Amino acid sequence: MHEDIEKILITEDEIKAKVSELGQKITRDYKGKNLMLLCILKGAMMFLADLSRAIELPLSMDFMAVSSYGLSTTSSGVVRIIKDLDYSIEGKDILIVEDVIDSGLTLSYLRKVLLDRKPASLGICSLLDKPKKRRVEVPVDYTGFVIDDLFVVGYGLDFAEKYRNLPYIGILKPEVYKF
Ligand code: PRP
Ligand code: MN
Ligand code: MG
């Protein structure tokens, strides 16, 4: 285990099992549709890579980079689009793939922006959900794990851009981010 991690919250095996379960559900629900996975960089990249391989359907993928946290541990509430989509989403069944929903600010902003572009449908799939931190409601269609308000890293999730490569989701030791 990484020396900055206090405890593993979700193991690599638990993530694998959940991703496969979500992949099967999405496969059933999106059969015959024009599915496009929309990965929200950077946090969702691991989840996108694994989830997309658990979906047994033809699909396309695109990427958006937004940032609300920057280098801090709490959301600033200001969402910036750093990289937009490459193509139009008109008529496509878009499934947003996120690593975590916290305040909900990132997704509620993105939903507004994307709905204006007239997709056939717009769904949300998030590996983690922290409902206690919610400041605005967002309709989540697929959730991996509901967790408490803990600062977690790994499997795409960072603190100051570090720890994204950990294969599990762990709780950071307080001394690493409190000074
Ligand atoms: C994190 C996380 C979600 C968002 C959730 O991204 O990956 O995208 O914040 O927070 P919210 O529900 O309070 O808006 P971050 O802005 O840290 O960028 P990153 O994915 O590049 O780490
Ligand atoms: Mn993110
Ligand atoms: Mg981040």
Give structural notes:
With 179 residues, this protein is an alpha/beta fold. It has one domain (13-148): Rossmann fold. Helix content is 24%, strand content 30%. It contains four helices and nine strands, in the order E-H-E-H-E-E-E-H-E-E-E-E-H. The strands form two sheets. It has a six-stranded mixed β-sheet. Strands 1-9-8 form a three-stranded antiparallel β-sheet. Helix 2 (45-54) links the parallel strand 2 and strand 3. Helix 1 (12-29) crosses helix 2. The longest helix is centred in the N-terminal third of the chain and has 18 residues, at 12-29. It is globular and about 50 Å long. The mean pLDDT is 94. Bound molecules: 1-O-pyrophosphono-5-O-phosphono-alpha-D-ribofuranose, manganese (II) ion and magnesium ion (MG). 1-O-pyrophosphono-5-O-phosphono-alpha-D-ribofuranose is lined by residues 40-43, 67-69, 75, 98-106, 158. It catalyses: IMP + diphosphate = hypoxanthine + 5-phospho-alpha-D-ribose 1-diphosphate; GMP + diphosphate = guanine + 5-phospho-alpha-D-ribose 1-diphosphate. It comes from Calorimonas adulescens. One of its GO terms (molecular function) is guanine phosphoribosyltransferase activity.
